[in-house]
Structure formats: structure tokens, C-alpha cells
Amino acid sequence: MSNDVRSRMRGYIRQRLDMKGDTSPLRDDDLLFSSGRLDSLDAVEIVMTIEIDHGINFADINFDLTRLDSIDAIADLIERHAVSV
């Protein structure tokens, strides 16, 4: 599951960056929010995508933005909290 989740999230994040004109290379450990590459609107979109695709209710987990700050962090969050949908 990890590589599939990571690959899909990488594609989704790449799309968000491309919409902002950010065509810089994207590694799985690159910081997304603390570096300013993504903003709060992107965070809302990512949270909604994860909730819908993986059944994670962010109100039920001890969430903070650092848990979405890289593709590695997002994949870890999904692996820890995903439920079958």
C-alpha cells in the first residue's frame, strides 16, 4: 500500500504545485508548507482528499500541519490512520 499511496499523493501534490507555477523538482522529503510551496488552501484540499480517499476523519486524530509537510509525512499519516472505505 505504501508505494501506491505515496505515488498517488506525489501526483496530487505535483498537480497543486504546477497550478502555482512551481515546477521545481519534488522529492518525498521536501517540505511543502513550512517552505511556502503550498498554503492553507492547499492544506484544506489535501485534507479533504485524504478524508474521502482513505476514510480518515481529521477531527479524530491529533492533527497539526506538520503531518502534511512532506509526501513522506502524508504517506505515514495515511498508513497509520486509514480505514477501509
Automatic annotation (TrEMBL):
Domain Carrier, chain residue ranges per copy: 3-82
Domain of life of the source: Bacteria
Listed transmembrane segments: none
One Pfam family recorded for the sequence: PP-binding
Protein name listed in UniProt: Acyl carrier protein
